[in-house]
């Protein structure tokens, strides 16, 4: 396909702008993409004509345009993440016989978008549409552990940024960093009674094609009816890996051992 390289360059340009909080000068865009300035400005012109980027003439910078916003809102309307994830969570519930849910990170909160309830299990506070502080939930900790440290620091600039629940949860950036280090070391996050007294959760982050946290998958179970922890971790990890692959992340190489 003759236009494939140009299409790839246009997508790379849009992704670059999306990763930056502020519009960028054309020269910086060219440098970061490794493209000649002439090619970069040609791409910017084409994308500007279609509304995907906009030129801020007074600032001599380029930012995302209205068409990019329209794509984002269309994604929300179509809810592809929920459509892709629901059968994965249903199989996870069947395998574990415990409630499972999917949450996305929204600032310092997690927002629950799917709850799959196991037969005979009680409903939980983590229902669809509920928001909870990310630092007290297993799903939130799993996703925060994948973010760059500078982004975590930006989310939690001071002690006032932290919210406890049931008198549980970290209250400082130092404590949060320590908790996230443990999550990365284990490969999964845990919480006990910080969301609902008497219940615990195990969660794993779902990664997109850029290894960014697209969501968190968690299973919640009664503390007094604790399942086989190793089997539960394996089931949640498997579900998160499957959903990551469905979202476009390359499969991890098989362990040679």
UniProtKB/TrEMBL annotation:
One of its GO terms (molecular function) is DNA-binding transcription factor activity. The keyword Ubl conjugation does not apply. Residues 67-249 form the IclR-ED domain. One of its GO terms (biological process) is negative regulation of DNA-templated transcription. The keyword Cell division does not apply. Keywords: DNA-binding, Transcription, Transcription regulation. It comes from the Bacteria. Pfam families: HTH_IclR, IclR_C. Residues 4-66 form the HTH iclR-type domain. Gene3D superfamilies: 3.30.450.40, Winged helix-like DNA-binding domain superfamily/Winged helix DNA-binding domain. This is IclR family transcriptional regulator. It comes from Flexivirga caeni.
